[in-house]
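Narrative summary of target 7.
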Amino acid sequence: MAREAYITGIGMSEVGVRLTRSPLGLTMDAIREAVADAGLTLAQIDGVATYPGKMQTFLGFSPIGVDEVIEACGLRTRWHTGAAEATAQLGAIADAAAAVKAGLARHVICFRTVYEAAAMARPEEFPPLERRKDVTGNSQWVSPFGAFSAACWTAQFAVRHMKRYGMTREQLAQIALNDHRNAALNPRALVKQPLSLDTYMAARMISSPFCLYDCDRFTDASTVVIVSASDVLDEVGSIPVRIAATAGSVERYSWDQAEWASAYPTGRDLWRNTDYTAGDVDLVQFYDGFAFQPITWLEGLGFCEVGEGHRFIEGGTRIALDGELPMNTGGGQLGWGRLHGFGFAYEGVVQLRGQGGARQVRGDPRVAVATSGGGPMAAALLLTRD
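Modeled conformation, tokenized:
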């Protein structure tokens, strides 16, 4: 019988802005919670995965690497990985799933730690990237044109949808309104109250058509999921959630305006890797670093036709907690905080276990999709409760 991969433990540190607890401390908080949730001990962990690994040139973005976790936890690992050259954030979880299926590890800690708000407040501890006279790598295709921020790249795709398909800002607003409404029901989220359309429309613009509420904000937190092999589930004390399929893709940065974001090919590939279809999905956790990205995932995964995503979400009823396709039930990155992709896998497990409390989707949800990225890179997980 072929091995399968399951998420058996989830954990999250305090989520805040300009926290004083160290990034390693936050990471250890989330690891301890995830290990306890799985009913395991650190002695049983033999794998670690992260995205993008420790980045010395940008410590706020990624301050903790695999080696530090292995050392701090006293692990004896058989397999580990951590690199930025991956499909997207959730690609680290997909890699862990592949590893346990191949028998390279039994229980893998997957983590993502962000510390951008605190790092900006303490530049003496987390020095910013020094100004350079030249740029290399992917930055050479965007920075010389004033497009250092991902808001600029994503905004171009959103403007195209407005010009070609008729998307309005009132329709786009439904992503932020839905996120804030759900976050208000999530005690761990940064946002504590719903957002009105009037407040949204009056907010200052960031990169047209995005206003302040369309963009996630720097957050300090760590999120952990534990991926385990199916043949060691007897060691687990939690409700396991199967990783039924994964997919990911990367677009070349040297585009002369790419036609489609990477959510579209990733969405098509996800269904090629499973017998499930979009019609089987009970809820979705879509990456929303910018409010337009969930629309690309709706279209890319086939929940609606290309060019129809803004109409699908119009009015917000379809994507509400009691709608036909509940979206970002924990508040997403616009409401919960910028957990940089891993929060969507975490929340997918919460919902499929029926542990969402006030934000729990009604009925008996058994299938969820969690995604990350959606601009030049993207990754998706199909999660099921067997």
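The first helix runs from residue 23 to 38.
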